[in-house]
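agent> fetching stored inputs for the coenzyme A docking request
agent> found them:
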Amino acid sequence: MKTEKYYLKEIEQKDIQNIFSGLSDPEITQFYDVHFPTLEATQEQMDWYQNLKTTGTGIWWGIYGKDDQKFRGACGFNGLEKEHCKAEIGMWLLKEFWGQGILKEVMPKVFDLGFGELGLNRIEGYVVTDNRKCKSALEKVNFKYEGTMRECEIKDGKKISVDIYSILKKDIIG
Ligand SMILES: CC(C)(COP(=O)(O)OP(=O)(O)OC[C@H]1O[C@@H](n2cnc3c(N)ncnc32)[C@H](O)[C@@H]1OP(=O)(O)O)[C@@H](O)C(=O)NCCC(=O)NCCS
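agent> prediction call returned; pasting tokens
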């Protein structure tokens, strides 16, 4: 899958160093319920990607620059429910690549695959209410805010609210 400046390649076991470089960064995992401080610990995430594939419940890709083949971040689908033609979307970028419009450029391609090959009708995003960067990025690619699950999680003793965003096939193809 290619865009003007980037290409996406399915995540494999040999990408563990790239995944570690992202998910060991507390600024990237700030709003996540996962954080992997060591390369060894990151194997759990690699098993999660593999399990999505073997169970047919999702797929994640690495994002690379066409000019330098350098890893930029990752994005993908999980929680895919075939009977309801829906899946949850996720994305993270290495900090050095924030503020460059990568999500804005890559997401439409991911939508095409989701609404096309994967046969989705609905793509959902669950975003911690305080994650402004993510919410502004999602709104820029036409995700619709649907509501807030107030104080639906407790993390480190803190009550966390989560916003629900979605985009439907008809939002894209009209
Ligand atoms: C969520 C996340 C991927 C958003 O990254 P981002 O760089 O802010 O989003 P985009 O790639 O769409 O870039 C948009 C920004 O690039 C800027 N930009 C620069 N060049 C641009 C271009 N050519 N086109 C569009 N935007 C451009 C925009 O002004 C905008 O900056 P702003 O956020 O200061 O307004 C990033 O913050 C992240 O990895 N967070 C940690 C993981 C996480 O919380 N993920 C949650 C799921 S979304």
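agent> quick read of the result: The mean pLDDT is 97.
agent> awaiting further instructions
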